[in-house]
């Protein structure tokens, strides 16, 4: 699939007159629990020629391609990406931690990772993952019959919150690293391991009864992090450092 993805990225550069600086896999394939029929969710950061930015007009800062088969590609303009980076936007930071990199040009990703060491906001990220966990838990896991595969979409953000509390840093993109770091009980591990085996084998996980031990664990942790997050302080990256990086990338 990589050659097809690279062909599409080259086409985007030509059609939109942009330079793609960084392109990665996101979603379940990057998280490490994709099933055999999972989509390819490609995300990228791009930059226009200098003249494009010298305008009083507001311009579109996102490129979204129509979904084609199992390929979903979209990207953000660098200025938009750096604005979100300043707020420790977790989806963007997950891109920087993706284990599946398709393009990595002009050292952008390394420069951003270096800045992240001093600008990361644990509070912003924890609230993002907590909001995700609460929303998915309420929508998918409260009924007697639940969408079983959605357990991963609550487990992962809860374990991300656990990482933030423990390490005060951006959680790794890969689910396996979060999972092993959490050192869960044997009973929980047995249930999660079984779900992982079924999902990655492509078994049907659409509907089934609640898994009581997982629901209880998730409810307790969501409640805990709801209180924990109230005491955290917000921290943004100084805009001057990001302006400097933006100008450097324009002149490369």
The overall pLDDT, averaged over residues, is 90
**What integer value in Å does the Rg equal?**
20 Å
Q: Segments where pLDDT lies below 50 for 5+ residues?
A: none
Roughly how much helix do the residues carry, as a percent range? 55-70%
Q: In angstroms, what separates the terminal alpha carbons?
A: 30 Å
Name of the CATH architecture of the largest domain: 2-Layer Sandwich
Number of strands: 7
- Helix count? 12
CATH superfamily of the largest domain: Beta Polymerase, domain 2
Shape: globular
CATH fold-type name of the largest domain = Beta Polymerase, domain 2
Order of helices and strands: HEHEHEEHHEHHEHHHEHH
Task: Return the structural class.
Answer: alpha+beta
CATH top level of the largest domain? Answer: Alpha Beta
How many individual domains? Answer: 2
Strand content: 5-15%
Strand order of the largest sheet: 3-4-2-1-5
Largest sheet geometry: 5 strands, mixed
Structural overview:
It is a single chain. The protein has 252 residues and is α+β, with helices and mostly antiparallel strands. It has 2 domains: 2-120 and 237-251, 2-Layer Sandwich (Beta Polymerase, domain 2); 122-231. It is 55% helix and 13% strand. It has helices at 2-16, 28-31, 50-53, 78-86, 90-96, 108-119, 122-140, 152-167, 175-182, 186-200, 212-228, 239-251, and strands at residues 19-26, 40-47, 62-64, 71-77, 101-104, 145-146, 208-209. The strands form 2 sheets. Strands 3-4-2-1-5 form a 5-stranded mixed sheet, with helices on both faces. A two-stranded antiparallel ribbon has the order 6-7. Strand 3 and strand 4 form a beta hairpin. The protein is globular and about 60 Å long.
């Amino acid at each position: 699939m990589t050659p097809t993805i690279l062909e599409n990225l080259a086409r985007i550069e030509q059609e939109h007159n942009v330079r793609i600086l960084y392109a990665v896999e996101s979603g379940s394939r990057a998280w490490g629990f994709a099933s055999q029929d999972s989509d390819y969710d490609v995300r990228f950061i791009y930059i226009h020629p200098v003249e494009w930015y010298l305008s009083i007009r507001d311009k579109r800062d996102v490129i979204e391609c129509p979904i084609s088969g199992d390929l979903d590609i979209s990207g953000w303009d660098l200025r938009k990406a750096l604005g979100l980076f300043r707020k420790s936007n977790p989806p963007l930071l997950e891109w920087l931690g993706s284990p599946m990199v398709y393009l990595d040009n002009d050292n952008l990703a390394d420069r951003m990772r270096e800045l992240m060491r001093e600008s990361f906001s644990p509070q912003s990220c924890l609230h993002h993952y907590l909001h995700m966990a609460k929303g998915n838990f309420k929508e998918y896991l409260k009924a007697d019959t639940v969408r079983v595969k959605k357990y991963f979409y609550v487990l992962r953000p809860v374990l991300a919150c656990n990482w933030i509390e423990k390490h005060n840093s951006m959680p790794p993109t890969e689910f396996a690293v979060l999972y092993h770091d959490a050192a869960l009980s044997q009973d929980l591990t047995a249930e999660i391991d079984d779900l992982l085996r079924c999902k990655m084998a492509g078994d049907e996980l659409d509907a089934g009864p609640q898994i009581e031990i997982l629901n209880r664990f998730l409810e307790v942790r969501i409640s805990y992090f709801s209180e924990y997050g109230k005491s955290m302080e917000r921290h943004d990256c100084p805009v001057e450092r990001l302006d400097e990086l933006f100008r450097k990338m324009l002149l490369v």
